[in-house]
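Hello forum,

I keep getting stuck at the same step: I have a sequence, I want structure tokens, and every attempt I make locally crashes halfway through. Rather than fight my setup again tonight, could one of you with a working pipeline run this one for me? It's a single chain of 424 residues.
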Amino acid sequence: MKLLSKYNRVNILATITVFIIGGICYYFILHVVLIKQLDKDLKIEEQEINDYIKANNILPEATNSKDQKISFEPAEAVVDRKTLSVDILNGKGDEYEPTRMLLFPVKVSGKIYTATVSKSQQETEDLVKLIALFTLAMVILLLLGLFIINRFVFNKLWLPFNNTLNELKQFNLSSGKSLNLKESNINEFEELNSAVAVMSSRVVKEYESVKSFTENASHEIQTPLAIINSKLDVLIQDENLSEFQMKQLQAVYDALDRLSGLNQSLLLLTKMENNQFVYDEEILLNELIKDRLVQFAELAGDKKLVIREDIQPVKISGNKQLLDILISNLLNNAIRYNVPGGGITIKLDAAGLSVSNSSFLPALDEGKVFQKFYRHADTKQEGNGLGLSIVKQVCSIAGYTVRYSFGNNQHEFNISFNTNQLAK
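Reply #2:
Ran it on my machine without issues. Output:
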């Protein structure tokens, strides 16, 4: 949820709650005030009746107007003065109206009467309802105004932050370009830009340092490895070597070959982690897979493996070198850890790529299968344990999803493509 949406939700809910509570209180207070005003009017009528009786010693004439009624009834004893609200029929006799009524005793020529003065509350109730509806309309307009103003003000206030965020999204270490952060007249955002600029400069320096170290280290390691390999080639060709010496040299040669492969794999992983590859090539993935199948045909033939293909034409945007490595690693594992006479199934379509194979190994640990240097405890095949880690890293960088599953004695690796990266 966006910050503006969250703020508006909290702000509107709080405002509505306050207005509901305030509106209820306002309604009842207004109602009480208007009732008191009616009571005051009734008291004035009472005073006028008493003044009239005192001056004329007779009862004033009873009235029955639309809004006010005055009546007198003989009483045997003096009644208590009281004010009450009742519902009585209106003048037409078709509905009840809320009415405020005052009852008080009067004495004329020694006789006691109960005077009743009543005023209709209908206009008062209508006025309260009108004010309540007007207040509700004002609240709705106010909330709408607050929503629009907040949206406009927030968009204006957070523009520097959004500019900084967009710069960070587009920032690429391998491009060599620095962040272009615009100045802001808001102190907090200016501090943020300063901190981001310092951090990005530090990251760029560290990236360049790591990149330089990786390249230098790889070169420095490969040079002595190449020299050792060359010397071993010369020694192995010596006809005077005994069988034991030949086996020892071959063991050293194999270990050196694994060390060279490990160095190349670690260098590749480091380059991928440092984002040193470009991913804008258009690649015919089906042709790349078929090329690799031709390359691995001899190895598969040595084990008499049956390869089943269901390969559809797929053009994808990415890095050809990395996709080549990904396919090679999957095929290499499928052949290396297969059983003689086993099978490999390869499927490719616009949704993804799957490679499954029979194997002498039981299920791999799904939580560790893509970790560096992970190898099943039962395997005796040589390897550096980096092949699937490289596959995982290529998929992560390219935006693919890779999953491992095991069933019916088949190991399956399924790669789902990002549809946005399928070339048109």
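The chain has a mean pLDDT of 82. If your local run keeps crashing, start a new thread with the error log.
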